[in-house]
């Protein structure tokens, strides 16, 4: 019998990710007292388990989406399992990063499998909120290149829900 099945938890663990990263859409952030400490608890849309945020993960999300937790709702992150040192021992942990996506060009024969190498995302894949890619009010400098006059980048759209990794059952 698997120990995780014998002692189920309502909170996400590294084992729940089954060795694969998962792209998830954030839900509400609440606080809860666990082990006599107040912790931030992140709900994940479409998922049963919630994620207890440690300072490292909370700061990583704040770097991506701003320090106000109310603004995190409906934003996308990627979570993944890794080993970290905790109290002198190596242990499995969950970490947060910007979602990554695969380029899908049929003319280059790109591999679109989930385990294929992925290009880092420079900007989030949801509608422009008027802030630069760093999450602050700085904008990209104006372009002097006039070869594309009359053309503009297509507007960014919300990432479709089917892009989430629903095959990971947590």
From TrEMBL:
<protein>
    <submittedName>
        <fullName>Uncharacterized protein</fullName>
    </submittedName>
</protein>
<feature type="compositionally biased region" description="Basic and acidic residues">
    <location>
        <begin position="128"/>
        <end position="156"/>
    </location>
</feature>
<feature type="region of interest" description="Disordered">
    <location>
        <begin position="94"/>
        <end position="170"/>
    </location>
</feature>
<feature type="compositionally biased region" description="Basic and acidic residues">
    <location>
        <begin position="94"/>
        <end position="122"/>
    </location>
</feature>
